[in-house]
UniProtKB/TrEMBL annotation:
The lineage of its organism: Eukaryota, Metazoa, Chordata, Craniata, Vertebrata. Residues 92-225 form the Cytochrome oxidase subunit II copper A binding domain. This is Cytochrome c oxidase subunit 2. Keywords: Copper, Electron transport, Magnesium, Membrane, Metal-binding, Mitochondrion, Mitochondrion inner membrane, Respiratory chain, Translocase, Transmembrane, Transmembrane helix, Transport. The chain crosses the membrane at residues 27-51, 63-85.
Length: 230
């Protein structure tokens, strides 16, 4: 979960988010080297009064400053395309969950079960227990088994929403009349927080998302208890 004065990303909790963090560091290093080179050239041009006719008009230099940016773009584009395809790849999910956005709460349907579905509302500040996070805790969490491919079908009932959990590297728009899908694998047990990331009205800030990853035996116990309550 994010904390105050945090400058970087949240810790990765899925293999996809780890890939995104590595690509971010890779691209940032390239940008840093380019910035240093440009700053050095600007400094040299300002501080020296000497000039060389071979620098002012040289075919070799023009070739170099054309080829180097092309190579740099390739070094950025290839890892980016790889991650882009990984984000769209959904192979044999162990569980499918439908997340439906409303004004202003989420409802979840476990489509592999006949009658397993519930609404997820934010817990008001005055009802929070000790240790719970304000504006982030919900009355019913989306529980998933750890280390299992999970497919999430995302849609909305009224206006545009966006189902986003940063630590899992997941963000998918919820569009009325359209069914989008995304997938993730939780690398470890834990509770992962997110929020609606599309301005959807007056209470846009009050429809959090909580994903709880548990071992498979605990997940089976949870589904049994939820089905009994239904």
């Amino acid at each position: 979960m994010a904390h105050s004065a945090q400058l970087g990303f949240q810790d990765a909790s899925s293999p996809l988010m780890e890939e995104l963090l590595h690509f971010h560091d890779h691209a940032l290093m390239i940008v840093f080297l380019i910035s240093v080179l440009v700053l050095y050239i600007i400094t040299c041009m300002i501080t020296t009064k000497l000039s060389d006719k071979f620098i002012l008009d040289s075919q070799e230099i023009e070739i170099v400053w054309t080829v180097l940016p092309a190579i740099t773009l390739i070094l950025i584009a290839l890892p980016s395309l790889r991650i882009l395809y990984l984000m769209d790849e959904i192979n044999n999910p162990h569980l499918t969950i439908k997340a439906l956005g409303h004004q202003w709460y989420w409802s979840y349907e476990y489509t592999d079960y006949e009658d397993l579905g519930f609404d997820s509302y934010m817990i008001p500040t005055q009802d929070l227990s000790f240790g719970q996070s304000r504006l982030l805790e919900v009355d019913h969490r989306m529980v998933v088994p750890v280390e299992s491919p999970i497919r999430v079908l995302v849609s909305a009932e009224d206006v545009l929403h966006s189902w986003a959990v940063p630590t899992l590297g997941v963000k998918m728009d919820a569009v009325p009349g359209r069914l989008n899908q995304t997938a993730f694998i939780t690398a470890r047990p834990g509770v992962f927080y997110g929020q609606c990331s599309e301005i959807c009205g007056a209470n846009h800030s009050f429809m959090p998302i909580v994903v709880e990853a548990v071992p498979l035996n605990y997940f089976e116990t949870w589904t049994t208890s939820m089905l009994e309550e239904a």
